[in-house]
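Standup notes, protein team

Yesterday: finished cleaning the Fulvivirga sediminis set.
Today: histidine kinase structure.
Blockers: none.

Input for histidine kinase:
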Amino acid sequence: MISGDNKKNIKILFIEDSEDDFELILNKLRKEGYTGKNTRVQNSEELIEALQEEWDLIISDNQLPRLNAQAALKITRNRDLHVPFIIVSGTIEDGDAVNAMREGANDYIIKNNLARFIPAIERELKEAENRKNRYKAEKALAKRQKEYKLLAENIHDLVCLHNPFGTYLWVSPSAKKITGYNYEELVDSAPENLLLSHEKGLLEERIWSVFREQSTIQSIRLDYKLRRKEGIIIYLETIAQPIYENKELKQILTTSRDITEQKLAYDLLIESESQYQSVVESIAEGVILYDEKGIIINYNKSASLILGLYDEVNKFTNLEEHFQLIKPDRTPFPTEQLPHKITLKTGKPCSNVVIGLPKESNILWLSFNSSLYLQPNGKTGVVISISDVTKQRVYEERVTAVAQELTTLIDTANAPIFGLDWYGKINEWNQVASKITGYSKEEIMGKTLIDEFILDGYKVAVTNLLKSAFRGKSVTNYELPIYTRTGKVVTILFNATPRRNINNDIIGLLGVGQDITELIDYRERLEHKVAERTKELKEALNKEKELVALKSKFVSMASHEFRTPLSTINFAANYLLKYSEKLTPQDSQQKLNKVMEQVRHMTYLLDDVLLIGKSEAGTIKVNPDVLNIQEFFLKMKEEVTNSTQNTHEIVVSLGLEKNMTVIDEKLLRNIVINLLTNAVKFSPGKKKVLLDVIYKSGLLTIKVKDWGIGIDDEDKSKIFEAFHRSNQAHAIQGTGLGLSIVKKAVDMQNGNIEVESELNEGTMIKVEIPVDEK
C-alpha cells in the first residue's frame, strides 16, 4: 500500500519477460524518485502466486511467450478490482488497446515513447486511491443500511415519523402487527383517522400543537385508544419526541407500544377487588397483607384464629415482635429470611416455608406462602397466606424418625446395600458399599450404576436384569463383576427387590450384595488347576498312544527293513561257504561288497532309529561351533555321491556371504545327508539332484531339488511323521525316518522347513536356519 509519508514509495509488480525492458522501465521510475519493492513475473503461475500480496501498481508487457496482457488482466481483476494495470509494449494494435481498456486496463504506453508514462502512473495511483476510498465508503454505507433495516424489521414497538401536523411520513414494519394497516395504507395519512370519534382531536391537542408552539418540550408521553383495521379497540402508550433543524420543527418521532393486555388486566383487577375481599374473609387459610415497608396493614379472620388474636386490642404490625419464631430444626428463624421480607427484596415468591410458633408446651407449625400484589396507592406490597400444618409436621417427624432408623440400619449393615431410582441412578449407598468400591456416598449419589461400575461386556445383561426388576421381578444371586475406584474388578453376589411407594407403585430398586471376589478367585484357581491336570493327563495319554504307535511302527519297520538286508547277508555268506573253492576272486569280492552294502544300510537304519529315540527323549543338545560352510557342503556332496554309487550328479550352488559360521555340525550333517539321500533315492532313473546353499545376513538357506516321483497332497501333511512312508515310496527301500530327523534337527535350531512337490514332477525342500554370527 502507498505510504502516507512518501507516495513514491510503492510496490510494483512487473509482467515482463525481457530483462532489458524491465531494467529500462525500472530506471525510468527510479529517476522520477519512485522506490519500494518490485517483483517481475513471466507466466500465469508466477502471477497468481504474486497476487497473494497487495500491489500499488502492475505494469505488463502486451505479449509474453506464455502469457499476454489480456489474460494477465483477467487474472488480476479476478483478485483485485482497484490496483492500476498499465500495459507498456513495443507494439500494440489500436483494436487490442481498446479491448484492453474495456476489460479493465487503466492505460497503455508505447515503450518507444515513454513521455506519458510517469504522468499516467501518477494519475492512476491517485485514481486507485480514490476508488479504494469510495469502495470503503460504499461498503460502510451498505453495512449501516443493512443494520438499520434489520433493526426496523425486528423492533416490536411501532416507530413512526410524522410531519409537524402529525401526518405519517414513515412507519416501521411492526405497524401491520399493531394496527392492522400496512406501510402504504398509513404513509401520507393522519393518525387521527385511527382514533375513536370522540377523541379525534386528542393527538393534535396533546402532542402536535404542543411541539409546534413550545420548542423547550423534549418529549411527551400519552396513553389513548386506537381502532385497528378490523375494528378492534386497543390501548397504545406513545412517547413523542420533536426533531428540530435550526430551531425549526421538521419532524416528530413517535414510539408506541400495545398495552391492551396490561390495561385490561388492571381494569379487571380494580373491578374484582371487592369480590376478592369477600372471598379472602371466607377462606380457611390465613391471609396477611404487608405494605411496601414490610408492615402488616390487614389480615383476615382465619389469620386471627390461627394466630390466636381475637380482638382489636391485639392488632399487630409484625409477627417477629409478638411471637418467637423457630425453624423446623428448633433453631431461631432469622428475621431477614422471613418470606415477606425476601419477596419484598427480590420480587420472587416464597412457597411452603415452615415456621414454628412455640405456645406453652406445644409448637404451632405454620406453612407460609408469599407473593407480590399491587396496593391501591399503586405501590407493591406482599400478601402472605398461612395454614396450620402442626398435625402434618408431627406425622412427618415420626416418619422421619422411622426413616432415619431405617437409614442407619442400611448404612451400618454388614453387606453392600444400595438403592436405585426409576432412572437407574444411585440414591442409597451404605458404608460397606463405600468400602468395597472406594467411592463415598457423597461422591456416588446421583450417578448411574450402569455407567460407573458395570463392565462393558455385562452392560446389556445388567440393563435387561434391572428392567425386569423394575417390572416387579426380584433378582436373586446374580454374580455381578463391578469396577472399583482403582480399576480393580470385584464380584458381587447381587440380589434386588423393587421399592414401592404408598400407592404400591414401583419407584426404584433396593440392591443387597455379598463380596464373593475371593470365592470366585478360589473357584477359578481350582478350575484352572483341574484344567491343567486334565490337560497334563490328556498329553500324557496322547504321548503314551504315540509311543505305542511308534513302537508298533518300529516293530513293523524293523521286521521288514532288517529282514531284507539280513536275508541278503545270509544268502551271500552261505554262497561263499558253499562255493568258495569254485568262485573266482572277483566273484568273491562282489559277494563281500554286497554284504558290506547291507551292513552299511543296517548301520544307517540303526543310527536313524537311535537318533529318533534320543530326540523323543529330549537328550540331544545343540552344540554350535565354528564351521567352514564351503568345505562342509563339498564334503557332503562327495560323501553322498559315494554312498549312492554315483547314480546321480549332485549339482552344488554356493552363494556365501562368508565361509565361516557358528552352527551344530552334527545336526547340519543329519539334515543335508537325509535331504540329499532322499533326493537321490526317490528320483530313480534321473540324472541329477540340485543342492543350492545361500548364507546371508545371519540366515543359512538350503534348497534340495529332485525331479523324482514327488509327493501327493494326501501325504504332504504326514511326511514329517516318524516311520511314515508315502504311497509312491513303498517300492523303494527305506525307514520313513529321514524327513522326521530333518524336521527335528531344524526345529532344535529354531529353523523353518518348507516342501514344494508335484506328483511325478519332483520335490523341492527348503530349510532356513538362523545362525549366530558372533
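Follow-up from PR in the comments: The chain has six domains: 12-137, 155-258, 264-395, 413-512, 521-561, 621-770.
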